[in-house]
Design brief:
about 300 residues, mainly beta, SH3 type barrels, OB fold (Dihydrolipoamide Acetyltransferase, E2P), 5-stranded antiparallel beta sheet
Length: about 300
């Protein structure tokens, strides 16, 4: 210890410079993870899964894939608002990265093959939307047959269109502040998670009697995580006989691949009319430890056009 003290006393300038260099390297490493212009700053608080988000910096890149090497579809500036559809983690060069899939703004450039448009209407199934005028550009969406699009212009074999709800891109999560979905009040837990046993109700003409000592509240299962969520995806019936619900929410099909996001249940809403449709749902999500997928009890469901 004495030897270390002597060393510090004899070389104070070296220690100060070393500390300054260490701080600078740490700050540079944080900025290197941001996929944006020089004014963007990294944050340490995680974003919500889905919801409404606000861009925090200028010239923030929105890419065709969750990768810093993917094509830039459009750039967003500070204060722009976006709809967050999905959150995804990835690793590049050994560094963990977080990405958000968002709906594209109106100024994003989207292109489709001109031969599959007739009067601004798609005449092919699952028509790819590309981020540039050519098949070598990555696809950023698929349009079902019969979709009506706004044509910006046609050059050669490719037509530029305005983004549709089926089009999306990826932005680094630290560049967006996502508004958290409202959580249920702690004093009023969801009915499907807490069972309340009460005595018989007194006659309406009498004032309500105080709760009897026999009334009890069963605590929420500690192995189940509960949260209020808003999610965007495609609704389909479930085929497995042992599934916890009859319907599921899946991601948009890309390259003929689609992934399950959650099981869906609803006691009041007829979900059959939403089969195969692009929907946005909100409700209470239950995720039991060890289960691969959560179960969402739908409180509201809307079509996404």
């Amino acid at each position: 210890m004495k030897r270390f003290t002597n060393l510090c006393s004899s070389h104070p300038p070296i220690l100060v410079v070393s500390a300054a260099l260490a701080c600078a390297l740490t700050w540079s490493a944080q900025l290197a993870r941001a996929d944006a212009g020089p004014v963007a700053q990294a944050v340490t608080t995680p974003a919500a899964q889905t919801g409404r988000g606000t861009v925090k910096g200028d010239r923030c890149n929105v890419r065709s894939r969750p990768s810093t090497r993917a094509e830039v579809v459009v750039q967003l500036n500070k204060g722009d608002t976006v709809d967050v559809l999905e959150r995804k983690s990835s690793t590049e060069q050994g560094k963990p990265l977080e990405w958000l899939r968002i709906s594209l703004p109106a100024n994003a450039k989207c292109y489709v093959s001109a031969k599959h448009l007739t009067g601004g209407v798609v005449d092919a199934d699952n028509l790819n939307v590309h981020c540039g005028p050519g098949g070598n550009y990555r696809d950023i969406g698929k349009l079902p047959k019969g979709t009506k699009v706004d044509v910006v212009g046609t050059k050669g074999e490719w037509t530029q269109i305005r983004p549709t709800p089926e089009c999306s891109g990826w932005i680094a999560a630290q560049l967006v502040d996502v508004e958290p979905a409202p959580a249920p009040a702690a004093s009023n837990p969801p009915a499907n998670m807490t069972e309340v046993v009460t005595p018989a109700v007194a006659a309406p003409s009498r004032p309500p009697a105080p709760a009897a000592p026999s009334a009890s509240v069963v605590n929420i299962d500690p192995d189940v995580e509960v949260a209020y969520v808003v999610k965007d995806g495609y609704l389909f019936p479930v085929t497995e006989s042992n599934a916890p619900a009859s319907y599921e929410l899946r991601t948009r099909e890309v390259d003929r691949l689609s992934f399950r996001m959650a099981y869906l249940e609803s006691s009041e809403t007829n979900l059959k009319k939403y089969e195969g449709k692009h929907v946005r749902i909100s409700g209470n999500q239950r995720w039991r430890k060890g289960d691969r997928y959560p179960v969402i009890t739908i409180e509201r469901i809307d079509r996404v056009w």
